[in-house]
Automatic annotation (TrEMBL):
Transmembrane residue ranges: 209-232
Pfam family for this entry, one: Guanylate_cyc
CDD domains, per the entry: CHD
Domain Guanylate cyclase: 15-130
Protein name: Tetratricopeptide repeat protein
Single GO biological process annotation from the record: cAMP biosynthetic process
Cross-referenced InterPro entries: A/G_cyclase, Adenylyl/Guanylyl_Cyclase_3/4, Nucleotide_cyclase, TPR-like_helical_dom_sf
UniProt GO molecular function: adenylate cyclase activity
Organism: Bradyrhizobium australiense
UniProt keyword annotations, A-Z: Membrane, Transmembrane, Transmembrane helix
Entry coiled-coil feature ranges: none
Superkingdom, natural source: Bacteria
Gene3D superfamilies: Nucleotide cyclase, Tetratricopeptide repeat domain, TolB, N-terminal domain
Amino acid sequence: MMQERPDRVERRLAAILVADVAGYSRLMHQDEEATHAKLTALLMEAVHPAIAEHGGRIVKNTGDGLLAEFPSAVEAVRGAVQCQTRVGELTIGDAEDRRIAFRVGINIGDVIVEPHDIFGDGVNIAARLEGIAEPGGICISASAYDQVQGKVGVEFADLGEQNLKNIDRSVRAYSVVRDGPGPATQTERARQGALSTPRRSMNRIRARLTPVGGALASIAVVGAVAGGLVVLKTVRTDVLREGQKTQREAAARPDIAPRLSLVVLPFANLNNDPEQDYFADGITTDLTTDLAQMPGAFVIGRGTAFTYKNKQVNLKTLGKELGIRWAIQGAVQRAGGQVRMNVSLSDLSTGRDVWSDRFDGDRTNLAGLQEQVTARLARSLNVELVQAESRRSQMDQSTNPDAVDFNMRGWAKLYEPRTKVTNAQANNLFDSALRLDPDNIDAMLGKAFCIASGVINGWSTSVVEDKKTAIKLIDQVLAKRPATASAHIAKGSILQHGNPEGALPEYDAALEIDPNSPVAYASKGIGLLTAGRAREAFSPVQIALRLSPKDPAAGTWRFFLCHAHVHLRQYNEGIEECRRSINLNKLDWFPYADLISAYGATGQLEMAQQMLAELNAIRPDFTVQWFQRIGYARSSNPQFRREYDDIVEGLRKAGVREQ
């Protein structure tokens, strides 16, 4: 009798990714409901969209596991990278002991395929590699490493041969080098993991791989290999330098006030003449800039500080609102050529003054007077100032008091809401200062800012010549006063349109001098995006918003976040940020364009039409081709233009007229 031939077992080569929530049991023990809610949100906002966006198909999922299949390895890797990146962004403000982080293991292997499952050593090895990965980290096998080496734009640390549980051969492993524990730490963890039992056995994973509709604590993503593994090229997002550690940590943990966190509230004008406000405002601004350069200081930006001008301030509430510990208050009075400043330092936890003092000086030597105040504050805060790094020196100060006066008036005008008229008025005031004192550095810089604003806002009638003039002025400023962060910001702003790659070093230079400049952080964020590095744009902009949450430019900075999300096709997040931006400034047309595109891309055509009606009321000449020309003029970077083309296509889907 002929024996029946068994059914053929279907097998295929696949790229397998397993991810698991680190410390899931501990998190659930601490607070089941909060952990469940947070994990559900992460899965819905980060994991599931990434799988769907990259063509993945969920094979089955459980309360703490998921298998999904992708049409190609490259899409599986793209989905995995997107998951990790997005989870990191969504949890950046969570307390460390409550933060959800995934460990990831990746392997290439032969798997047995069934209608609702996959089996084999390939899956087992990926799961074991996940067990030796750091929270937020990625650990891959040698077979995967051989395929991706030199192709993915990230570095790897060799963890050596690993003896993995229930695997009858050693597996060489590599970890992706990232922020946090270095290769040595990762290697040590791998060695410990090789000798100890992983957190749970593969049998437990198998036992719990049953379909459910709830939250997931781990993911196993499988991508079929077609024609070899091609891995997404990624860019490392470590774009903030060591000198900005305080700012980075404050943005990540807004609930914890840094030790040297403070705000300089607008000084009162005791002359009873509103026309003299510019003088008190100028002193406040200069003092903010000087204190921002103290080592380890976290100083709230001028834009937010000035929202408290002429208001009664509850100091305890202020500390909670801004997430800071100290406030500096003061008053200024001029009498002829003499200036008197009363200054106090307040502890926001108690609402009481730590000290107050009076400073008298000559109007021709405001810099010296301000340095006395800065030094007194530094001593009270137990900070040693490095005098060589002072923003101003006695040698470069104008000795013409009228030139100083015109310069301070010019800067006051420059800080008003920016229009073509106010920009021209500020420029005229700086010209008046320079006629009296051609070497007035602050006036040179102010004039350069005015010219840059003209170029950026389309008011210039000779863009090429104006760019040259502005850069020449800035170079003169930097030659005489190298440690001038605002000069680098101005130069970056000029280079931004057309040469974003050239602008980025200028913003970095500004932040080396003043790591508390929200404008430099925000400018760097949009510069990274325009240079084709949208994934790196979030952190600098988020720091800008932490430093100056009530800034008049906060609406624009929210648009930068919206723009980055839409560039990356993260439409739900983009829609949310665009709406925040619009709520802060309903006259700015930029976020409307991205919001309409996001609605178009996601098929929400009714919402798109509602927003289009609002956009047409603000910008009746808006067309698809006009919008595309504006973007292409900003940057020739191929990655930027590819992403920008997606936004243009979203506008078409939304029904925006072509021309």
